[in-house]
Design brief:
Its EC number is 3.5.4.16. The chain is an alpha+beta fold and 217 residues long. The chain contains 7 helices and 9 strands; from the N terminus they run E-E-H-H-H-E-E-E-E-H-E-H-E-H-E-H. The protein folds into 2 domains: 10-73, GTP Cyclohydrolase I, Chain A, domain 1, CATH 1.10.286; 80-216, GTP Cyclohydrolase I, domain 2 (2-Layer Sandwich). The strands form 3 sheets. A 5-stranded mixed beta sheet has the order 7-4-5-8-9. Strands 1-2 form a two-stranded antiparallel sheet. The structure holds guanosine-5'-triphosphate (GTP) and zinc ion.
Length: 217
């Protein structure tokens, strides 16, 4: 049997992996040991450069925690949204709007690596195939768990749905607040950015209006 590579959520006894700690995500290898160590080393340097003592009690485990947090927040690079959507596609003749709204989104802005967060509303009109409802928020997650700009995040979700389901049309709206504009920089606490991406039937004004009415209802 091939020797199991040790990852940081493994339970290790005398150098042998004897189990793994439960995580609520499927990816057991999310916290790669080498990546965690390398990123943690850099985080320790950052802490020191910022004038803190990385060895003091409260901070001693911080580099490793941060390294794991960033691996969690960027796990989307290792996930395939199209495979997720294909997992649960069903033939169906329903051909009205299907809207999954108020999907929480947490992402990292690629300019400052600070969070932006809000809600995504995702709709499509099927053309022969519907998809398992949970796969829509899962698709949002895959693209959100990367370094992003809100515009690209919006477009990528719409493109994945179009490419896999080949619907009559797809529409995505994201409303988000950016901590890089709140905690620093321009320091505007109440600004909210809305982005949208539509295709096919949603380019028609009345369909787009119906979508927006459903989102606001
Ligand atoms: N279009 C877009 N811009 C974003 C997003 N997230 C952050 N930004 C912006 O990226 C820009 C980067 O601008 P720079 O001038 O290079 O960086 P900066 O000096 O830190 O800018 P300030 O935030 O204005 O202090 C800022 O205007 C941010 O508000 C996003 O999702 N989409
Ligand atoms: Zn930013």
């Amino acid at each position: 049997m091939a020797e199991k590579k040790i990852v940081t959520d493994d339970i290790v006894e005398n150098g042998t992996v004897v189990g793994d700690y439960p995580t609520h995500y499927e990816r057991r290898d999310m916290y790669d040991a080498e990546t965690t160590r390398d990123v943690a080393d850099h985080v320790a340097s950052i802490i020191q450069k910022l004038g803190e003592d990385p060895e003091r009690e409260g901070l001693v485990k911080t580099p490793e925690r941060v390294a794991k947090a960033y691996q969690f927040l960027t796990q989307g690079y290792a996930q395939d949204p199209k495979a997720i959507l294909r997992q649960a596609m069903f033939e169906e003749t329903y051909n009205e709007i299907i809207l999954v709204k108020d999907i929480e989104v947490y992402s990292l802005c690629e300019h400052h690596m600070l969070p932006f967060f809000g809600k995504a509303h995702v709709a499509y009109i099927p053309d022969g195939h519907i998809v398992g409802l949970s796969k829509i928020p899962r698709t949002v997650e895959v693209f959100a768990r990367r370094l992003q700009v809100q515009e690209r995040l919006t477009l990528q979700i719409r493109e994945a749905i179009d490419e896999v389901l080949k619907p009559q049309g797809a529409a995505v709206v994201i409303e988000a607040q950016h901590l890089c504009m709140m905690m620093r920089g321009v320091e505007k606490q109440n600004s909210c950015t809305t982005t949208s991406a539509v295709s096919g039937a949603f380019r028609n004004h009345s369909t787009r209006d119906e979508f927006m009415r459903l989102v606001r209802s």
